[in-house]
Amino acid sequence: MTSLHLLLWIVGGILLQLAVYLSFGFWRHWLNYLALRSGATEIRLPAEPLTSDDEPEPATPAWSGLRSFRVERKVAEDAAQSTCSIYLVPQDGLPLAPFQPGQYLTFHLDLPGVRGTTDTIIRCYSLSDAPGPNGYRVSIKRVLPPTGSRLPAGRASNFLHDQIEVGSLLQVRAPAGHFCLDRSDAPVVLIGAGIGITPLLSMLKSCLTEQPGRELWLFYGVRNSRELVLKSDLQALAAVAPNFQLRICFSAALPQDQIERDYRHRGRVDVDLLRRQLPLKPYHFYLCGPTAMLESLVPALEDWGVPDNRIHYEAFGPASIPRQRSTQPAAAAGKQHEDQSAGVVVSFARSGKQVPWQAASTTLLDLAEAHGVAVSSGCRAGGCGSCQTTILAGEVAYRQTPDFDPEPGTCLLCVCTPKSNLTLEL
User: Where do the domains of the chain lie, and which CATH numbers do they carry?
Assistant: First the structure.
């Protein structure tokens, strides 16, 4: 055998090994894809992904105003039965507008008041499922009275748990909110606590459908197994999605809770846990939970070196988490705005009242209520849009970016202040 023949045999052997390796890799990824596709049916993921563009193309435009929805199902989602999922279908039977994973629905609820009256209250609840054309799901935690406090239980959550049944009709605004999952290929870390899992689960399901190859982590913190919400959904997703890593953390495990079976880590979700678990990659972090969790984790992520534009969060109720890299500019802007608003007068046209702006009022909603001007309000955090008011003259400034997008020529009183003399329609 000549040297040329020997060289050809060696090259041929190398090419054969390379071909076998590539074929095995393709076969393994194909099996993973088939497993994910098969599992999609069991966990109600759409079999086909949406368009690969940055934003999905809506089949129908979102509706304006209120739309009537019928309760199709109610399902308890935790061992303590403190959280239930409500499945909603449109009463008119028309297709639903798609929503962005992470958005919420705004409910106008008519609750029985004192002396036979009816009180209308407005509440926002995150969508907890992937977008679909036929129905929505929200998962709602019953709010109990705080221990040792005279504060009442949550009226809306208890009403939805106790009074709303299959067949009940609810008045709902279209999906809204800016706490949404991006469509890039960057790996994602979702961090939730308690009922904060709801928008993250919507993000998770949608991403596994549209971008099955994208790396996903979910760190979910609760006290123990009785408070673990939507456990079956999470376990089903983890079982069929090879790129999804689930990390459940118990901060106060019960005696019967077993590590590795019921949860993965003991303690709260903190940056030390993230450091130990996550490889060094350019992750996008999405956080949802109580303000205390965000006040701890957001600055810790910044200290870790995570860029500001890769940290996204949503808190329960009004919350403003100071960002370390913008503390001085924000303070300077706030001081400048206080100087500009000195001597400003706010006029309420319909009520016939003129009131000097008082910085202690914090927002225009506070000012209106302090002077007896009736204002419809709900979330008081710029989310529900119920305090949207027409501006007849003047300008306003927003203390935080609202989730609800006000119509041109209007403002959300609960999150804005006057920049100049201001006349409102109220």
Answer: 67-145+152-176 (2.40.30.10), 188-327 (3.40.50.80), 332-424 (3.10.20.30)
